[in-house]
Amino acid sequence: MAKQIYYQNDGYQQAFASLADGLPGVPELRARAFADFMATGFPTQKVEEWKYSGLSALANAVFVPVKTTDRHAEAESFLAQSVPLEGAVQLVFVDGHFNTALSQAGDLEDGVTLTSLASALAAGDNRLEGRLKTNEQAQGRGLRSVNAALMTDGFVLEVAADTTVSRPIQVTYISTSAVVGHSTQLRNVISLGKNSQLRLLEQHIGVDTGTYWSNFVTDCTLGEDAVLERTVLQEEGAKAVYVAEGDVQLAARASLKAFWLTLGGQLSRQSQFLTFNGMEAEVALYGAYLGAEGQSHDMLTVMDHKVGHCNSDQIFRGVLDKGAKAAFQGRVIVAPDAQLTNANQANNNMLLDRSAEVNSKPELKIYADDVKCSHGSTVGELDKDMLFYLRSRGLDADAAEQLLVEAFIAEVLEEGLDAELLDFMQLRVRSWMASHTASPLTAEADGKERT
Amino acid sequence: MLEIKNLHVNVGDKEILKGLDLSLRAGEVHAIMGPNGAGKSTLSYALSGREGYEVTEGTATLNGKDLLDLEADERAGEGVFLGFQYPVEIPGVSNMNFLKTAVNSIRKYRGEDEMTAVDLLKLVRSKAAELKMDPEMLKRPVNVGFSGGEKKRNEMVQMAVLDPCLAILDETDSGLDIDALKIVADGINRLRAPDKAILVITHYQRLLDYVVPDHVHVLADGRIVKSGGKELALQLEAEGYAGLGIADDAA
Ligand SMILES: Nc1ncnc2c1ncn2[C@@H]1O[C@H](COP(=O)(O)OP(=O)(O)OP(=O)(O)O)[C@@H](O)[C@H]1O
Ligand SMILES: [Mg+2]
User: Fold this and answer.
1) Hey, are the CB atoms on B72 and A447 less than 8 Å from each other?
2) Mean pLDDT score of chain A, rounded to an integer?
3) Do A394 and B109 touch (CB under 8 A)?
4) From the CB of B41, is ligand 1 less than 6 Å away?
5) Which residues of A touch B82 (CB under 8 A)?
6) How many CB pairs under 8 A join A and B?
7) What gap in Å lies between CA A47 and CA A274, rounded to an integer?
8) How many C-alpha atoms does A328 have within 13 Å on its Cβ side?
9) Is B164 a member of any domain?
């Protein structure tokens, strides 16, 4: 891989040195990760998986985490934006550090352990080491290496066998710093025991005024018959670079249902690696991304059907306004013995303006013969007939466009979210529409030629 | 009330309306008949402001106001309603939400307060009942999976809720069964009022038995070629366009 020089500077060296005593427990792992980052750097667009997301924004400064933060009041004001989720256990991270005062721990069932990564490591939980390691063979792994090297915190969530976590776990990540060159490096570890159940909601919020970098890695294992419902609302600040990677390992009959609503950031990239290790497991991934001028959203999913009799379904929908970019890469791998695999994938995009750009790339690598795999991707514009129908009933250009966009997104929201979150997420979509889209139709409407 | 003078409309490079004159007074119902492809739907789209219908000459005013200068939604705000020959399906938008947005958009245009959700629901339910539409259909996405007749009936529910002052109904009677035709005709008759005008585009006398027009016009090759009373429709039914010396093929 081509080396880039910009990250090989004193800034990252100093940050690493200064953070060395910040997070206890795994000094060798971190040193090794840092060396790997120095050697590999950020993934470039020459790496297939990174073809559509250039990380050049990260080249302009050294983006390092703060060692401690006292920006309590700033963080608190952001909490007004958080999802009101009845009965949830609240975890709040501010600028990369768990914030006890803003969090509401609350009672959890016996068998549920929820702690910050910093305290888990301080307590000497040496089982974590294996979960924090970076695969030093993986292409484009630089982001994981730098995350392991500079991580300041995260959460560790362990659910024992046969335990249903009755209260949802809600995690809010807040970036308050408007100083260019700030980064958040968080690492989460989730382990669901056999036949356990959990609902998890994560929300990313941040300041609009500065370029900061959020870098998340989440490692998740689901035991046999375990059920995880995960929802992620990405509302990072307008100039943020947001990258998140997730690994999910599924044992037999385990089930994951996940939803990503991506609205924020200047550049956002979500990479999800899912591996079926036991039969009859199920994954359903849903996502909606809305992009306005200057925004770029990129989603990569790698669905690795190592064993047969598993189902995976993916539905991702995007709406892109003038000058916005998005990419969806969905790779499905079906191993030679993974017979009776059922893998479906759909990616539908709506462009509100000709200048919007989308790359949709399904990639099926199927080595078994008795499988059902489908993929479909579409890129369309607002339907002219529908627009005229709505306008003939009195809706102005903006209202008609908004209604059609909401309808387009509603279909995936309704599939991917339970009633409790649906209304809230619909409101987020609506307010995003109201604040981000100009009136691209007005110009077209003027084209209703008259002489 | 509606004054159309020397209207020329191009679709693409083709001139479809070639100098059409038509005048509707308040309180009147006019019927337009004419061969396929004569330009009837073109007239309805030009009056309601559809993109791609280019007015090259002539005027159209509603109560003295220049319609052609307004956007489609502004025309709706002024009280124009088009009953579509082919109503459009809108997945993901419920009929109820659609009507709610439409009513409040028009009220906003007129500088009126929004109608409350409760009042709106009442209004829509009562209009749906008048037109014997199953209230369950209000929850369904607009026209999606509706039968041809159900779509037309849905147009009439929208018309009743929006209460326009000029209704242009493009073949609203096509595809309706006998009972539905009566229900729709009742709906049209309910709209009749001294301050409103209705323009019915139809191929059949049937509807005009129930909605008795004050004037009947024949549109052929982009112009009104003949006008008369309700008996003109009967004559057409008996003799066809050929009987009036009009080629059945406008092209
Ligand atoms: N987009 C278009 N491009 C080219 N020609 C068009 C277009 N739309 C309509 N036309 C033509 O304009 C003419 C008039 O069409 P219009 O739909 O107004 O007829 P109509 O009188 O409503 O016919 P019908 O009774 O069949 O509904 C037709 O010859 C039609 O083919
Ligand atoms: Mg027609």
Assistant:
1) no
2) 91
3) yes
4) yes
5) 392
6) 93
7) 20
8) 30
9) yes
The verdict on a CB contact (< 8 Å) between A397 and B56 is no
Instruction: Tell me, yes or no, whether B251 lies in a domain.
Output: no
Q: How confident is the model at residue A451 (pLDDT cuts 50, 70, 90)?
A: very low
Q: What is the pLDDT of residue A107?
A: 85
Q: Say if B74 falls within a structural domain.
A: yes
Task: Look up the pTM and report it.
Answer: 0.86
* pLDDT band per the 50, 70, 90 thresholds, residue A448: very low
**Amino acid identity, residue A129?**
E
Q: Which residues of chain B have pLDDT under 50?
A: 250-251
Q: HEC profile for chain A?
A: CCCCCCCCCHHHHHHHHHHCCCCCCCHHHHHHHHHHHHHHCCCCCCCHHHCCCCCHHHHCCCCECCCCCCCHHHHHHHHHHCCCCCCCEEEEEECCEECCCCCECCCCCCCEEEEEHHHHHHCCCCCHHHHHCCCCCCCCCHHHHHHHHHCCECEEEEECCCCECCCCEEEEEEECCCCCCEEEEEEEEEEECCCCEEEEEEEEEECCCCCEEEEEEEEEEECCCCEEEEEEEEECCCCCEEEEEEEEEECCCCEEEEEEEECCCCEEEEEEEEEECCCCCEEEEEEEEEECCCCEEEEEEEEEECCCCCEEEEEEEEEECCCCEEEEEEEEEECCCCCCCEEEEEEEEEECCCCCEEEEEEEEEECCCCCEEEEEEEEEECCHHHHHHHHHCCCCHHHHHHHHHHHHHHHHHHHHCCHHHHHHHHHHHHHHHHHHCCCHHHHHHHCCCEC
Model ipTM value: 0.96
In chain B, the number of structural domains is 1
pLDDT at A92 > cutoff 70: yes
CB B170 within 8 A of CB B44: yes
pLDDT at A375 over 80: yes
Q: Which pLDDT band, with edges at 50, 70 and 90, does A438 fall under?
A: low
For chain B, which residues lie within 8 Å of any Cβ of chain A, measuring from their own Cβ? 48-56, 68-69, 71-73, 75-77, 81-82, 84, 87-88, 90-93, 97-98, 101-103, 105-106, 109, 141, 158, 162
* Neighbour count for residue A364 (Cβ, 10 Å): 16
- Whether residue B54 lies inside any domain: the answer is yes
CA of B221 to the centre of ligand 1 (A): 11
Report how far apart, in Å, the C-alpha atoms of A112 and of each of A107, A171, A193, B156 are.
Answer: 10, 16, 10, 58
Decide: helix, strand or coil at residue B86. coil
Q: Do B73 and A396 touch (CB under 8 A)?
A: yes
Please work out whether the CB of residue B16 comes within 6 Å of at least one atom of ligand 1: yes
pLDDT given for residue A134 in this prediction: 83
Indicate the range of A65-79, A90-104, B12-26, B234-248 predicted with least confidence.
Answer: B234-248
| Structural domain span for residue B184 | 2-42+50-244
Q: What is the pLDDT of residues B180-225, one digit of tens each?
A: 899 999 999 999 999 999 999 999 888 999 999 999 999 999 999 9
| CATH code, domain carrying B230 | 3.40.50.300
Confidence at residue A443, expressed as pLDDT on a 0 to 100 scale: 37
Q: Which atom of ligand 1 is nearest to the CA of B35?
A: 25
